[in-house]
TrEMBL record:
Entry superkingdom: Bacteria
Gene3D superfamilies xref list: Cytochrome P450
Record-stated family: Belongs to the cytochrome P450 family.
Species annotation: Sphingomonas corticis
Alphabetic keyword roster: Heme, Iron, Metal-binding, Monooxygenase, Oxidoreductase
The protein's name: Cytochrome P450
Length: 428
């Protein structure tokens, strides 16, 4: 990689392999998007299946091109989700194994499952999240979006969009899908932030590496109460579907599996969408011509939502593991090797997107982004996320004529699911 010197702002991609590999796993570089993209642009150009061997982590290969990520994710028999879901320091992987009796996850949810269990558990809720099935929820989602925008209007023309709006609106939508009310929102907010921000001093539970097990234990107690409530009094919500589901052996779903299901829906469904909402507003502020296009032609909004999701790519990676010897990007991959799917990199791939670093609400092929992944694990909530974002931006644009930055935006330090943590704005 010595010859590959790309520049991310003031920062030059390290030429030395050890420093380059450290940069790939350093969560601070994910809070500075120019750095992350400088690293990935280098990889797409020079080493599309890069062998990363950072100190303190199990080695892995970075898959940085759009076509290769699609191919790996589609071939779910050759590339499996278990045993490695995401980037964790070796020390943390060992703690997880010690705490779980040798397993490599703290909760067995859809993302760590493979066929046939994955198919069984995903089928339980898949129908609930189709575009058609979500249509009747549109009015309730719009009420929540209006409430968020009313709240902004009551703040004298200034707020931190992340804290005051973007974090709460998607969480309230998820609570609605689970049939839960406002009394649970602070709890779920805390749990999500602790799970996705273990490296960020502003969101983690504590600096103690075992804190995540306390988070999961606290969440499990809450889930058991939810399962019991939905078995006693079933409703028409997703929690009822999960609580009353059958396991593959025909018996009732185990409480740990129900917990893992609530966990993936509550966490994956909330932080991701709020990151895209904030990043979308920031880009519209930075690109007034794009905002004018949207105001002039509101029919562009669904496409703009895809461009916002492409641009923000809140999920930075998931892993796959080769189940047998194979090849990727023309290079051999041995059984047991781990592959990091770098979604934001796919979404800046010059081979797919013209001028990929330009934000364009009318981008012709914005929908081809891989921010929701691909193949059998494709984001279960993608239609819900897009519906929420479209409605939120419809309401924002209808209510306010002007938006501007009122301070420095900031991003979370996390190499997994991350996005904006501060977006001070003024509006009228
Ligand atoms: C899976 C991204 C919103 C629920 C995923 C994956 C990605 C992703 C990259 C992994 C796909 C793969 O491995 O191929 C996003 C983004 C969102 C978002 C960028 C918002 C902008 C949501 C919402 C929900 C949700 C609103 C609510 C239900 C899930 C679930 C999975 C998943 C349950 C696991 C699917 C499986 O393994 O079968 N998401 N997501 N996500 N997402 Fe989302």
């Amino acid at each position: 990689m010595a010859s590959a010197m790309a520049v991310g702002g003031e920062w030059a991609v390290p030429g030395d392999k050890a420093a380059f590999d450290r940069a790939i796993v350093d969560s601070a570089n994910y809070a500075q998007e120019a750095r992350y993209h400088a690293i990935m642009t280098t990889l797409r150009r020079d080493a599309p299946l890069y062998r990363c061997e950072p100190a303190g982590f199990r080695p892995f290969r970075v898959v940085s091109r759009h076509a290769d990520i699609r191919r790996v994710e589609l071939d779910h028999r050759t590339f499996v989700n278990y045993p490695r879901m995401n980037l964790q320091p070796l020390e943390m992987e060992e703690r997880v194994m010690a705490a779980t009796g040798g397993r490599r996850y703290t909760a067995r949810h859809l993302v760590v499952m493979d066929h046939p269990d994955h198919h069984h558990y995903r089928s339980l809720t898949q129908r609930w999240f189709t575009a058609k099935q979500l249509r009747p929820l549109e009015d309730r989602i719009r009420e929540l979006a209006r409430e968020a925008v009313d709240d902004m209007a009551a703040r004298d023309g200034a707020c931190d969009f992340v804290h005051d709006v973007a974090l709460w609106f998607p969480l309230r939508v998820i609570l609605m899908t689970l049939g839960l009310g406002r009394e649970d929102e602070k709890f779920l907010m805390k749990i999500t932030q602790e799970i996705f921000g273990p490296d960020d001093p502003d969101s983690r539970r504590s600096a103690d590496p075992n804190a995540r097990f306390e988070t999961i234990a606290e969440f499990s107690r809450w889930c058991d109460a939810l399962t019991a409530a939905r078995r006693d009094a079933p409703g028409d919500d997703v929690a009822t579907v999960i609580a009353n589901a059958a396991a593959p052996d025909g018996g009732p779903i185990a409480s740990v599996d129900a917990m893992a299901y609530y966990l993936i829906i509550a966490t994956a469904g909330h932080d991701t969408t709020s990151s895209s909402a904030s990043a979308g507003l920031l880009e519209l502020i930075r690109h007034p011509a794009e905002l004018r296009k949207l105001r002039a032609d509101p029919a562009l909004l669904p496409n703009a939502v895809d461009e916002i999701v492409r641009w923000s790519s809140p999920v930075k990676h998931f892993f796959r593991t080769a189940a047998s010897d194979t090849e990727v990007a023309g290079e051999p991959v041995a059984a047991g090797e781990h592959l990091m799917m770098a979604y934001p990199s796919a979404n800046r791939d010059e081979a797919v997107f013209d001028d990929p670093f330009a934000f364009r609400v009318d981008r012709r092929n914005a929908r081809e982004h891989l921010a929701f992944g691909y193949g059998p694990h494709l984001c279960l909530g993608q239609h819900l996320a897009k519906l929420e974002l479209r409605i939120l931006f419809e309401e924002l644009l209808a209510r306010f004529d002007r938006f501007e930055l009122a301070g420095e935006p900031a991003w979370t330090q996390s190499s997994f699911v991350s996005g904006m943590k501060r977006l001070p704005i003024r509006y009228a």
